[in-house]
Amino acid sequence: MFKFGSFLMTPMAKYLMLAFALVFPLLAKNEYQVYVMASAFVWAIAVYGLNIITGFCGQLNLAHGGFFAIGAYTLGLLSSDYGWSFWPAFVAALVMTAGLGFLVGVVSLRLKEHYFAIFTLCVGFIIYLLMDKWEELTHGPIGVRDIAAPYGFGLVDFTNTVPFYYLVLAFLVFAIWFMGRLSRSLLGRTFIAIRNGDELAESLGINLMRNKILAFVLSTTYAGLAGALYAGMVRFIGPEEANINHTFDMITYLLVGGIGTITGPLLGTVGIVWITQSLQFLEEYRMIIFGPLLVLLVIFFPRGITGSFLGWMHHKRQQPQATAKRQASKATAATEVESNA
């Protein structure tokens, strides 16, 4: 019998999702829908970065939106104020976010649990204040305009929406591929061991500080990558890109999709972005709608959509074995009763 749940876990399902993403511009009703999907993909890349430090390593980084903004501002300022072309500025944005991620990680990761979260919340707010008040560097509330778009080396024009969509899709596919390889690697298992408990990880000989910093740097690099792509897409950025609300939005995407999973960040981000677009006429009441939905999600699907589905699949696979063990136990008990009689 065909089982749809099992089908979702096969490579064929992944190829079908990729095929749908490839043909989406042909199915979209207008160019704006292509833009919305490209924007969702950009945010999904950032959420995958949050998944590394929070989902795999168990550290709640509330400055993630700030590093997203650092990537965007690095590319924007280098291209707008200093005349850099997109790709060199893009590489510089990755290096900048990775470097700052290392410095912040060295300091913040000495703290644990909610102390770490509070510290990173303060870091995120400081990043926002610097971008809003340091007018000589960031242009303050005016923001950065005339940001360079990616150039296609004479082969493609990325200033158009559809080519840029495919560019973002390529980076998203790479981000998911890297996440999958990471989750199956020794390093990924090391991150998960740290998430399960520092004492347990130390007893296994894991260097906590080194691995936490590495997870933090990888996470911020993902955020910088997404921020740089965002700057190249919208061509204008302001201090609001560092607003703490973006971090909470990304946490929401991660929780809805499934924290610590591979497909969860993508499903959560794309799903909520499109729901938000569909409910634009209720924008003022968005939190009134999403608030109760999130509460229900936490109650009934605490592991998110993907995590709950994987748990259900695991339970279905284990159920025949459990049934067989119960039947064997009953048969053994009946045999013992007969022998005693």
UniProtKB/TrEMBL annotation:
GO cellular component: plasma membrane
Classification via InterPro entries: ABC_transp_permease, LivM-like
Compartment annotation: Cell inner membrane
Topology of the protein relative to the lipid bilayer: Multi-pass membrane protein
TM stretches of this protein: 12-28, 34-53, 84-107, 114-131, 163-180, 213-238, 250-275, 287-305
Main location class: membrane
Single GO MF annotation: branched-chain amino acid transmembrane transporter activity
Keywords: Cell membrane, Membrane, Transmembrane, Transmembrane helix
Protein's recorded name: Amino acid/amide ABC transporter membrane protein 2, HAAT family (TC 3.A.1.4.-)
